[in-house]
């Protein structure tokens, strides 16, 4: 058989070998492929580098018709198309940066049914001309790559993605597969709702990346800390994330003065400057990319050996994505998060000031608190990070900073138990402030209205300051015993972790520096 449907009739495993040269599926690929082959809508959650592309490329080839792939970034599309063409797959990309003759060539091939897989940006896909042309074709599968872009809660929201909810009207009966490396349960629910596929099969891989060495340290003399982290990776590629454009410029200049091949990257660069910086990064030469979060999606250099955060990310999801750019080749890679109380208060302040709707602010706030909690983890940091995504690791990772150098702690079992039972008895609906108020017996209207002043936990923690309790809350979040971020920003117990503590089966060590530091910074408010 020739033409677009030449693989129809072959099994996916055959095509995996023949076209892609892989002897076997990896992880969830086989399950994802078979769901889509059966015509079902699917959501695939897999960390970066996990092999998401195969999940839609195989059904695109094996089902009759052309595969349609929605992708948010031109660079990303062009890379995928080039890789597929090398394998003999006729792939093409439709986006705003095409030359007009290229565009008409693709149109002709589309009309002739010659294209196997078409990558398209969401706005282009839903433009009347393209939609008209595509809806006349047989479509094998619609893949929505980087599907978290559809979620306003996500850290890479793309308003254009919202319009994808209309896909089933334009392409009735065509199975859809959404893919993302964002593991956060809330974003996942949002994707399913926004794509109108509530009954989709959800396949979620482990987000553990054992080759990433996770470490965090309080900020001291920042530049010295950065340089000493970079020193282990001379002649290699590293990324240093900063919180502002101006800071990337300053840090890059200062690194260059010290002889490092540093390059700033942020959204304020001209397209030419951006392209030059990306080109240098991709070329494989040694480089220290000093960047804002604008440097992100589609960055596909496999041998990044270190990712350093000079400023704390706004959520565990963003943090995970950013450190995930290290070690895509699977070799050990360092990460270092530098954090300070000032960062945290500044981030909280800006959130409070932000014009976002309250519901959105609550979610952003709970993510920020989870991020802060991560910095204060006393036990395995890798485990604490995965717990943010609802993933339980049975054993500590053994190689994060806390696994290697245990931190000074005190016995906080009693305090943890008090807090957990206060949350349980108040119905797992209230935020930290309210629960702490109950523990400290602080009279308030909501406490009285809900009868919380009659509970056995009322006032049992009044010997301790509010800031002490805040420290305990954050640490229990870090430990995975508490989750924040239900619809109302309330605290909930994570049963698996919380129950043994409540039953007295497990002791809780808390980080000394966390409750102390917190106490001193809040002295005025006692
Ligand atoms: P993601 O999109 O999840 O970041 P990719 O689809 O780019 O990941 O795949 C990551 C890498 O894994 C690629 O280099 C790809 O060639 C390789 N890969 C994917 N599937 C397999 C497989 N079944 N066997 C071997 N290598 C694979
Ligand atoms: Zn660890």
TrEMBL record:
Gene Ontology MF terms: DNA helicase activity; hydrolase activity
Rhodanese domain ranges (all copies): 170-273
Cofactor(s) named in the record: Zn(2+); Mg(2+)
Alphabetical UniProt keywords: ATP-binding, DNA damage, DNA recombination, DNA repair, DNA-binding, Helicase, Hydrolase, Isomerase, Metal-binding, Nucleotide-binding, Zinc
Pfam families: DEAD (PF00270), Helicase_C (PF00271), HRDC (PF00570), RecQ_Zn_bind (PF16124), RQC (PF09382)
Residue ranges of domain Helicase C-terminal in the record: 222-372
Source domain of life: Bacteria
Top-level EC class as recorded in UniProt: isomerase
Gene3D superfamilies per the UniProt record, alphabetical: HRDC domain (1.10.150.80), P-loop containing nucleotide triphosphate hydrolases (3.40.50.300), Winged helix-like DNA-binding domain superfamily/Winged helix DNA-binding domain (1.10.10.10)
Enzyme nomenclature, EC number: 5.6.2.4
Start and end residues of each Helicase ATP-binding domain: 33-201
Reaction(s) this enzyme catalyzes, per UniProt: Couples ATP hydrolysis with the unwinding of duplex DNA by translocating in the 3'-5' direction
Region: Disordered, residue numbers: 513-526
Recorded family membership: Belongs to the helicase family. RecQ subfamily.
Protein's name in the database: DNA helicase RecQ
Upper classification of the organism: Bacteria, Pseudomonadati, Pseudomonadota, Alphaproteobacteria, Acetobacterales
